Amino acid sequence: MKTAFHKTVLQLALLSTALAFGTTGAQAEDIKLGFAAPMTGAQAQYGKDMQHGIVLAIEEFNATHPKIGGKEVKFVLLSEDDQADPKTGSVVAQKLVDKGIQGMLGHFNSGTSIPASTVYSRAGIPQIAMATAPEYTRQGFKNTFRMMTSDTQQGSVIGAFAVKKLGAKTIAIVDDRTAYGQGLADEFEKAAKAAGGKIVRREFTNDKAVDFKAVLTNIKRSNPDIIFFGGAEAQSAPMAKQMKELGLKAPLVSGEMSKTDNFIKLAGPAANGTVVSLAGLPLDQMPGGPGYKQRYEKRFGSKVETYSPYAYDGAMAMMKAMVKANSAEPAKYLPVLAKTSMIGVTTRNLAYDARGDLKDGGITVYKVVDGQWTVLESVGGK
Hints:
The chain is an alpha/beta fold. The protein folds into two domains: 29-148 and 284-351, 3-Layer(aba) Sandwich (Rossmann fold), CATH 3.40.50.2300; 152-279 and 364-379, Response regulator (Rossmann fold), CATH 3.40.50.2300. It contains twelve helices and 15 strands.
């Protein structure tokens, strides 16, 4: 009886194991994907927005029971807070590499993505970042890809739009001296000049500043038709308020880091009239936008913000490349990732050029009207 009892217990244990791990008798192998962005501080909302898109993509992809090498795999996300700081970005990049990540989704800022990309390139790990500064994909690395269009594309659209559509003949420019802010401002300046605009003042601040009265007072003397700012909402919102306080009539024009509901909340009535550019189409016009919105809101209980759809597409591109290559080894799936051509949430054809920039680079221009973002024009995109 004792032997029979032990045999029964063993059979039950084996049955329990089989039920837990599936009919193959083996647990799904974990594939580690890295993520880094500002998760604390003034830019934390951007990082969390980006992270949500990646989490949703991983959960949905895992639900399809993907297989590599004939075995089921499970994608897991290792997250780090880079604090939007270049030095911290490089530190967490090495930390993620040491943890054995097989692909990198991030960073968010150009200023962190560029130095961190050296770490991933040295380790041979493909990186898909939200970075928009042109320099990110111009370093000669073969493993860098974008989630959004570059500042070259965005700056050229908003620069021409400011002159041709807003009628700006004289322009003042301010940037926050970050890789993103200065890069976008430089591209805007090139396009504005090419369209016939005149730059009457070029000023700069930093990404921690909140008092811009001295800079704006200098600009007021030049009486520009518009003021362009390259930087984030933490600076553009108080800048918009101080422009009104100083009696500046010129509207504020900026990039996608100012295109947030929080900008309107922080700037209050001074937000009205602000014009910004944002990569891609409005959510409701994206190929997969309506469906993504429903799934996102159900999963997170909040509305879709700016960056999550692009992060979602980037994560999907990386995971699909691994499955298609039948390998999670960076050297083996990197060539497949480089040749990506897929229908995404944000575009009908997500594909990369030789540098890793997105081939389909649409831009939409928005304006705050009565406290709401409204579409002025969409250029490019499919």
